[in-house]
Structure formats: structure tokens, C-alpha cells
Design goal:
Blueprint: H1 2-30, E1 37-43, E2 46-67, E3 73-78, E4 85-86, E5 91-95, H2 98-133, H3 139-172, E6 174-176, E7 181-183, E8 193-194, E9 203-218, H4 219-231, E10 234-235, E11 241-245, E12 256-261, E13 271-278, E14 290-307, E15 311-313, E16 319-324, E17 330-334, E18 336-341, E19 344-349, E20 356-360, E21 371-375
Helix pairs in contact: 2-3
Amino acid sequence: MVARIRYSSVLVVSLLGLVLSACNGKDQAAKPAGAAVEVGVVEVTRADVPLEAELPGRTSAYRKAEVRPQVSGIIQKRLFTEGAEIKAGTPLYQIDPASYKAALASAQAELARAEANLAAAEARESRYKNLVSIKAISQQDYDDALATLGQTKAGVQLAKAGVTTAKINLDYTRVLAPIDGVIGKSNVTEGALVNAGQAAVLAEIQQLDPIYVDVSQSAEQLLQLRRQMREGSVAAVDSAEARLLLDNNSIYEHVGALQFSEVGVNESTGTVILRAQFPNPDRLLLPGMFVRTTLEEGVRTNAILVPQRGVTRDRSGNATAMIVKKDGVVEMRSISVGRALGDQWLVLSGLDVGDKVIVEGLQKVKPGAAAKAVPATKAPTAE
């Protein structure tokens, strides 16, 4: 009797288990195997976008003049304040002029003697001309007088040139600024002996407004850009703008313009020098400063841009993107990307207008899964 009761209890428990298993099976069958996951997407479009390159560079003076003496002598005075803003023609140094004043006086005296000799030679030639006409003197005597007159005239011209030279040398004893700009420290003091044509510089003047920025660009990148311009995929800009990013990551307030690029490539670095010109009214930029320059190189026509957060790399390093197709199925697409423009990649191939690139929820889906595409937020979200 007890055994029959136990057998009945086991049978009841088994039947309950079967009923529960059947219920669970119905619930699992009711749940879809591939429920669509909501993901944020960006729809691909085409637009003309400016191409910019951020390149390292250094500032250099717009004009620079090294002040050297043009005559020899002792420095009597320094006539400028170091570090001051000066104008062209400003006196900088005074060289002892005593010997040059004496040389000028000597040249002037030589000119006076030559002019006196000229007067005598002209009078003799005039007399001999009358005498030779009446056969009072020989033709040879007149020819000699005429030659003497010509030599005396040449002597006067030579004496005048000597006076001019002496005046120039006397003027050179006052050393003047050749250009406008800021003058640096003086390399000589009063009492120093200087010589004409010496290698040592007395002082240096630099014009800082405007100022140049020389940047280096890879020759390969420049060649690729020019090839794209020739093919028509990149349009050239009439006046390329340039902007500066200073060492403290602040943006320089004035916009510059690209001036020219070197015609040769540096053999050791494989780069080409580009020069941009910037206004510098406040003298904020000084020669030799390191800056980062953003240059506008051209305009990419019909370009495709995708957010960088929507592009990943496979094990081989190739760029890929997850696409939600029209039927709601996720597809992994191999793409080719070019340069980075801000927080976006320039896509060269692999995507077309209308493709929906997943940028939010990438970790929730895989190729072949169902997904529901919704517009992505502008800023990256924490996934």
C-alpha cells in the first residue's frame, strides 16, 4: 500500500515536470530568434569639402638686414636703442670722420687745380687756333695745345669723381638703417675698430609685420594632391588661406595666405617647403617660433565623409564599416579612406550615397543580424 502511494507521487511529479517543460517550450517558440536591435546611423551623402593639411613650421622675418660698415674707422657713438623699432635711414653708428673730411678737402683742392689748368689750356688752344690760321705757328704746335686741352678736361672729370667718392665715404661714416624693422643687440661698442667689408655684423634688423611661416609638406602628399587636381577630383583654390595654432594650443587671430612652394625637394627629408604670410601687427609672432599651420590645399568635389567612430579596422589593418541594408540586415563593408578631416574620414571607395553607416551600437550587432536604423546623435554616446 505504501509502495503504491510512493509510485503515485512519483508519477504526479513527472507529469508536472512535463507540463512545465511544455510551457517553457511554448514561451521560447513565441520569442523571435533574431529581434532587430536599434542602432544609430548616418546616411551617406556627397558634398564639396575643403581639404586642409596641418603641418609643422617655423616663423621667419619678412625682411632681414645685417648692418656692416662700408668704411674703416673707430666707432665714436652708438645712436640707437637696442630692441627699438626703427625706420629706414635712421642713424645707427658714427664712425670717426676726421680722415674722411681731410680726404674730401684734398679731393676738392685737386678739383680746383684741375679747373685752373683747364682755363689755361682753353686760353692757349684759343690763341693757337688764331695763330695757326695765319701760319704764325706750325700745325703741330696747335695739335699739341688741343691735346693738352683734352687731357685737362679729363683731369677735371677725374677730380670731380674723386670729390664724389670722398663725399660718399664721408657719408658712410654715419651708418644708417637700410630697412624698417626691429633692431637687435649691438655687437660692437664705442672705441671698436671696424673695417669695410668685414664678416662680423654690427647689428641685425628684422621686419616682423608681416611675418613668414615656412612649413614642410611631404613630397608624396603634394604629388598626390596635384594628381587629384589634374584628374578633376580636387579643385584648386584661387587664394589658399592659412591659420596658425600656437604652442599653447591657442588659435592665432589673424588669417594668412599661402605665398609659394619650393620648386625642389629636400633630399634628406623628402619634403617641400611652403611659405605663408601672416599679419603681425602686435608683434606676437617672433622669428624662430615653432607653430602648427593649417593650409587650405583645395576643394574635394563630390566627397563622401563618415564619422571616425563609424570606421573600424580588421586584423589586417583594413578599414571597415557596418552598414544597415534596406532589408534591415547588417553588412560589414570594406572601405578605403583617405585623410582625416576633423572627426571624419574622407572615404575614397566602398560607400555610396544612401548607405546607412552604423556609428552607435556597433558592439550590439554583427554581420547578418537584424537592426533597426535610427538617426544618430551628433556627439558620440557612451556605449
